[in-house]
Automatic annotation (TrEMBL):
InterPro entries in UniProt: BRO1_dom, BRO1_sf, BROX
Annotated ranges, domain BRO1: 21-494
Organism in which the protein naturally occurs: Chrysophaeum taylorii
Biased composition (Basic and acidic residues): 117-128
Family of this protein: Belongs to the BROX family.
Stretch list, region Disordered: 96-128, 214-257
Compositional bias of kind Acidic residues: 218-231
Top-rank lineage group of the source organism: Eukaryota
Name of the protein in its database record: BRO1 domain-containing protein
Amino acid sequence: MSSSKRAEKFAKPKVVCAFLPVDAPIKKTQEINFEETLKPMIRKGCEDDVKELFGALTSARQMVLWALDRDRTLVSSEELQSRLVEYGRLLRGFIAPPGGQPEEAPKDDPPAEDEKEPPKEKKEEAKRAKTLRHVVAFVWRDLLDVKGRDWKASDVALEEASMLLAAAQTVLSRAAREAVSDANAIQLHTNLRRVAGMLARARTLVDDADRAAAALDPPDEDDREVPEEVEEDKKKKKGSWWSSKKKKDKKNNTMDAAARASTDLRLALPEAWAQLSLAEAQHATVRRACAQPHIEWSLIAALCVDQKERYGSNVDGHVKALTKAAPEAANVREWAGKRVALAFLQSHVAMKTLYFEALVLYCQGAAALELAVAETDENHCVTAIAHLALAAAKHKEAQAAAERFVTTARPITYVDSPVGPLAESYDLIRRALDRANQLNNAIFHRPPSAQVDPLPEPKTLISAMPYEDPGYSPLWTAKAWDAFDPEKLPDAEFGIASDSRECCTIS
């Protein structure tokens, strides 16, 4: 008669979400009436060719801003993205003429070569603008400007990138305010993956704007790269190519081209928030895995390792890049007028990194403890004690980081304190550790060991949801494009829009 093994199961961890609030300050912009702004650039008599287009642009932008209102919680992320796509289709038309080339009227019988009039054709072609991407100067609040100033950028790609950044902030802010439950976990997971896709699109748009800006100021003939065989001769001459003013001017032009975007776009805030959104979406995955009794400890541990690395490497790396200007600020208020504070971000990242490391160790310890009970195995018991003791220590560090997070957040924004839920999570680890010590003291009497197993390989079940390519709006016809007089187009504007926030009304 076979003897059955003893069985004792330990509770899976309760995942503490406590998402990072990113809504202080809000990414906002000045309103624009495209018809009033662009009317001076239209040829006389061509107003009707662009009237519908300008009306659609103004309406589409207003609808996006309406959907971005943080108080309109009934606007879903799907609806928000659809409005962004519609506005993006209209903005895309400013970049290049319809079809990329001017349309020509069909000709039944083309003239012979000697009957053509090249000068006249060249003159007609010169009157068509090559691009309209710089005709409107958009003013946006710069989230990372340390002096709290707004930013003006004449590039439709940067306008769309700013809209996507504002949309990401809206969805992330809603996620931070909403308690995660079984009812909303799947939708939250989808929304945050969608945010990561939006931000990837924003990064692409910023890169496109950089290339377009660099093309506005091509290098002079003397700025071209010097062949290696000429390099040494150039160095020997006084006033060489390497020390020339033109070389310095080329460097400055390159820096200017890369600095056309606002600080929050230029310092890779989209990448930081993209990593944050994926890490927060993964919470729903881990939470769901912990709620399933049949899910093994090893899978939960692997998911938690991915979270630990995601916060400890990806998010933390972007935080350090974003906050490199923080030492210039004397206090939190000066840090861009309630901007992202260094200690606020670092304490949140540290809390999540330590917390998920503690969960990994708890999973390893609980799995070993279940084997120790089932098989009456002293080695498994010692392994369980080592892992659970270290898990408790790491969890204590996470709780200390959580207290710092709440303290540093107080001057910046409201946060739903994670201290209470973390205390409950710690109690779960302590109960398992007490049971392991009880088993060892009663049966095995083994001395404690500090040796723990390596962390398992990370496993991720999360990826960004690709952002829909907007395409081009059919309202951008050849007539609409040709209605713009290239001689009336304004110069591109990039830079500070105001010395202080108070001088500009941002809606």
